[in-house]
Amino acid sequence: MAKGFSIRARCRNFRWPRDRGTPEISGPAAGAKRRFVDWAVSKLLFVGALAAIVTVFFIIAFLLRDGYQIVLETGLWNFLTGMEWNPTGRSPAYGVFPLITGTLLVMALAMVIAVPLSIGSAVFIAEIASPGMKSVIKPAIELLAGIPSVVYGFFGLILLTDWIRVAFDQPSGSSWLAGSILLAIMSIPTITSVAEDAISSVPREFKEASLALGATHWQTIRRVIVPGALSGISAAIILGMGRAIGETMAVLMVTGNAAVIPDPLYDVFSPVRTLTGTLGIEMGEVAFGSTHYHALFGVAVVLLFITLAINSAARVIITRIQGAQSIARSTPSGWVRAAIQRSTPYRAIAGTASRITHAVSAPFGRLVHPRTSQRCAFLLISLAVAIVIVILGVILFEIVVNGAGAITWEFLTGSPKDLGRAGGIFPAIVGTFYLVGGALAIALPLGIATAIYLIEYTADTQLTRGIRTAVDLLNGTPSIVFGLFGFAFLVLFLGFGVSLIAGQITLGLMILPTIIRTTEEALRSIPGSLREGSYALGATKWQTIWRVVLPPALPGILTGAILSIGRAAGETAPIMFTAAIFSSRFLPSSLTEPVMALPYHLFVLTTTVPGAATQSYGTAFVLLMLVLMIYLAAILVRRRYSPAKVM
Amino acid sequence: MNGSTILETTNLNLWYGQKHALIDISLGIPRNKVTALIGPSGCGKSTLLRCFNRMNDLIDSSRITGEILFNGKNIRDSHADVYTIREKIGMVFQRPNPFPKSIYENVAYGPRIHGMNDKKELDRIVEGSLKGAALWDEVKDRLHEPALSLSGGQQQRLCIARSLAVGPEVILMDEPCSALDPIATAKIEDLIVRLARDYTVVIVTHNMQQAARASDYTGFMYLGRLVEFDRTTKIFEDPGEELTENYITGRFG
Question: Which domains, ranges and CATH numbers included, belong to chain B?
Answer without folding.
Answer: 5-248 (3.40.50.300)
